[in-house]
Amino acid sequence: MLVPVFTHPSCLKHDPGPGHPETSARLEAVLGRLRTEPMVALREALPAAVESLTTVHPESYLATVRAMSEQGGGALFLDTVLSRDSWNAATGGAGAALAATDHALDGKGHAFAAIRPPGHHALAGKGMGFCLVNNVVVAARRAQALGRQRVLIIDWDVHHGNGTQALVETDPTIRYVSLHQYPWYPGTGAADERGVGNVFNVPRGPGKPASLYVGDLWSAIVAATTNWNPEVVFISAGFDAMKGDPLGGFTLEPEHYADWTTRLRDHLPSAPIVGLMEGGYAPQRLAEGVVSHVRALA
Ligand SMILES: [Zn+2]
Predict the structure, then answer these.
(1) Distance 258 CA to ligand 1 centre (A)
(2) Which pLDDT value is given to residue 1?
(3) 90-101, pLDDT tens digit by residue?
(4) Confidence of residue 289 (pLDDT cuts 50, 70, 90)
(5) Positive or negative CA dihedral for 216, 245, 130, 112?
(6) Please, what's the b/e burial string for 161-191 (b: 16 or more CB within 10 A of its CB; e: otherwise)?
(7) What is the DSSP letter of 143?
């Protein structure tokens, strides 16, 4: 089955500046590889409307990001830096996430969004960790608006999705399962952070065998879905947990993303899967990881 991969051209134009690891070369590498994949259909999404972002972010925050971009950019917060195209990249990326969500919830099969900047560190009123809009929570709220109440978010980026956790930790309709290096940026994600029983953190140290990371995330997914059947699965699909990534110390290889994806399809056969690109800072490795995941969605 063809897997649609949604993207937006503005995602290539966001530029956090020289020396910053979150470069357009990341997405260029991903799109270059996906264009050679026979089972992938690349599609351009429309930008997200502001009303679809205010389900997660206050209008005042969005207006600040927009105004700062339109004035040429600047540092929103520490290493979260805007350029002139950043607002369009953020709404383009969120639009691609929503298009992938709409596709999957329309019964047309699994989908992926190849987007940047990433989203899982973004808090309601504050961009953080290269992230401006929390794409996965925006997409989860769209799914709920379309009638899918029980939403599972799996986050296999090497960093804890502090923004996602903060946005869902009081909401039992969403379960959040995250494997991440710990202690590490952003400092959150301890195992005893359980929200209202809906947060399942899997903090692990660097340099362990890949089988440990694969098995431990899988055990947490099984725990989160025991007697709780999600109607849609979102993946905060970062690929910076791969061996050699400059921003992480995990040891995963491309095949491990295919392994998780295949297990998820078998374990939750009635739930569509929507993968949203997060981190991954060695562009060719990122591209290999994305392709492995997307192939397993076909
Ligand atoms: Zn990351």
Answers:
(1) 19
(2) 85
(3) 999 999 999 999
(4) very high
(5) negative
(6) bbbbbbbbbebeebbbbbbbbbebbeebbee
(7) H
> Ligand 1 centroid vs 157 CA: distance in angstroms?
5
Distance 280 CA to ligand 1 centre (A): 6
Angstrom distance (rounded) from CA 37 to CA 295: 9
- Name the catalytic one among 57, 110, 120, 121: 121
Q: Shortest CA distance to 217 belongs to which of 135, 137, 157, 272? A: 157
Give the mean model confidence (pLDDT) for residues 258-277: 98
CB atoms within 10 A of CB 121: 29
Say yes or no to pLDDT of 231 above 90. yes
The Å distance, Cα 180 to ligand 1 centre, comes to: 9
Distances (CA, A) of 287 to 162, 168, 191: 25, 29, 30
Amino acid at 10: S
| Spatial distance between the Cα atoms of 209 and 250, rounded to a whole number of angstroms | 8
Q: Is 121 a catalytic residue?
A: yes
Q: Widest CA span of the chain, in angstroms? A: 50
Tokens of 81: 């830096």
With contact defined as beta carbons under 8 Å apart, do 273 and 261 qualify? yes
pLDDT band at 39 (very low <50, low <70, confident <90, very high): very high
Instruction: List, for residues 211-222, the tens digit of each pLDDT value.
Output: 999 999 999 999
How many Å lie between the centroid of ligand 1 and the Cα of residue 227?
A: 30
- Encode burial over 247-270: b for 16+ CB neighbours within 10 A, e otherwise: bbbbbbbbebbbbbbebbbeebee
Token duo for residue 288: 């290999």
Q: How far is the CA of 241 from the centre of ligand 1 (A)?
A: 8
